[in-house]
Amino acid sequence: MKTIKENLPRILQYTVRIAILVFVTYLAVMHQLKGVLAAPNIHVFCPFGGLEALYRLVLSGKYIEKIMPATLILLAATVLLAIALNRAFCGWICPLGTLQKLFDRLGRLLRIRKTKVPQRTENALHGVKYAGLVIILIATWKAGALVYAPYDPWASYAHIAAGWQELYHEFLIGTLFLLAALIGSLWLPNNFCRWFCPMGAFLGILSKLSPARIRRNDQTCIHCKKCDQACPAQIAVESQPAVKSGECFACGDCLAVCPKEKTIDFYFVRRRLDWLLYGVIVLVLFFGPVLLSKQLGWWKTGYTSAAEALTSIVGAKDPALIKGSMTPRVVSTEFGIPLETLFKSMNLPADTKPDEMLKNIAAAERKSPEVFLKELRSIVSEHIKNK
Fold this sequence. Notes:
Elements: H1 4-34, H2 47-60, H3 69-85, H4 88-93, H5 95-109, H6 119-143, H7 153-158, H8 164-170, H9 172-184, H10 191-195, H11 198-207, E1 212-216, H12 226-230, E2 242-243, H13 253-257, E3 264-268, E4 271-273, H14 275-296, H15 306-309, H16 328-335, H17 339-345, H18 358-364, H19 369-385
Antiparallel strand pairs: 1-2, 1-3, 3-4
C-alpha cells in the first residue's frame, strides 16, 4: 500500500476535481433557482463555449448569447494547458469527466466488470467526436447561437435544479446523453469523453503539439498490464515506450497503479516530471490566466443588473434577451409595461405572482418555457413598436 506522501498527487487531483464539480454545481443551482443576477449561466464556465463563440467574435466583435469574456479566458487557459501539458484539462479540471469518474469508481465498488471494447470499434468511435466537433462549430458559426446546448449533457446537468419540465422540453436529448454517460461509466469508463465530447476532440488535436507525454521504462517494467487495465481511454500503455495517442486524458491512472517505482511517469520532452509537480503546474497554467485577467479587469461572468442583462450590444433594451430566470416585474419595469397589461396580454391570471420566475409561471400554465418566452418576447416587441 502506498504511503500518504506517495498518494499526494492523487489526493491533490481528486481534491481539485471534486472542488470544481461542487463549485460549478452550486453556480448551476443558484442560476436556476435565483436567476441570472444570482449566478452566471453554466456556459460561461465551459471553454468549449469560447470556441463556439470565436468565429462570430472575430468577424463582428459580438458574443454569442450566454457567452462572456470569462469564457474566452478559460478557452485560452485550456489551450495553453493542452499545448504545454497534454490533455490535463480532461484529467484534472473537467467536471463532466469527474462525474463520469465517480460513476466509474462506483462501478468498481459494486464490482461491476469493466467492458473492453474491441480496438477497431474503439478507434471508429473516436471519429464520432471529431466529426461532431466540425458539425457543431459550423452549425454554431452559421446560426450565431449555441445550437449544441440542447444536446449537451453538461448543460442538461446544469438544469437539473430547474425541474423535469424544463429538462423535458429543452434538454431531453442532452439529459438522455447525460444518463447514458453516467450509467454507462459503470461498465465503460469515461465513455462520453472517449467517443462524443467535442471539446475532447479539440484538445486531442492540440495534444499532438504538446511536449508532455507519459513514458514507460521497459527496463523496469514487469509487464503486469495493470496500466492497461486502469486506463479509462483503453490505451495499451504496456506495449509502447511513450503514449503518443491524442486520446490520453493525462489523468495518471496508469501511473497510480504501477507497482514499480519510476517505471511510468510524466515527461516534459525527455525530462521526468514528478507527478505532484505536474499537478501543481496544471493548476498554475489553468488558474493563473484567470487570476491575471481578474487583476486586469478582463474577467466578466455575468450581469450586475436586469437592465444590463436586457441591453443589447447596440445599447437598446432587447426583448429577445428576456430569460426564463427573470420575473414579470423585471419585464414590466425594464420595458415600461404595466403588470396588469402584461398578464392580460399573456392570458395569465390576475393574481400571478410578479416576482415568480417566468419559467416557473410557464410550468404552472403547462407551457414549454421556450414557447412561453417566445410569446412574451413577441408581446413586448409589439408594445415597443406601438409606443
